[in-house]
Amino acid sequence: MSNVVVLDHPLIQHKLTMLRKKETGSKDFRELVREISTLMAYEVSRDMELQDIEIETPMGKTIGKEVSGKKVGIVPILRAGLGMVDGFLSLIPAAKVGHIGLYRDPETLNPVEYYCKLPMDVEERTLYLLDPMLATGGSLNASIDYLKRAGAKNIKAVCILAAPEGIKAVQDEHPDVDIYLTSIDEKLNDDAYIVPGLGDAGDRLFGTK
Question: 26-44 and 82-91 helices cross at what angle (nearest 10)?
Fold first, then answer.
């Protein structure tokens, strides 16, 4: 079964509380998503491989550590996942960025794909699949399906909030994909929104209704 990691760093939890508040406007919401994503990127990249490198400081030679060159890809699920990209790029600027466009059919609640553009060598990369909200799990599962069909072998799902129903759905379909979160909320409501959640992340990011 996939590993579910809840990132409980005090700064993450503090910013998450601010993010949830209904009075938080789009500008502050975007900044908070970026800041939380930066902190999450720090945590989810802990298993990056290192190698020794000889360098010279002003005082002499020494052996330091550097990332061993394992390729990274960042794949936001449009549109809300876009809000998380800059946070990851601020720490991993050499990462390639792909995009998967999905929307949820309002009647069936099933994901409908409308766009996909990925790095050519996804099979060689660790892919961070970004979506602020893991609700039913439909969009995340559809995106993971697409990445695997494209050849991806190492995928990590990174979401700010999740409902238990969505976690179970992803674990059932993709037990090999680890899930990183800042909170597991109570449930989904009848409209498949996370409760207590934070509302529609895309609308709050971009000021739409």
Answer: 50
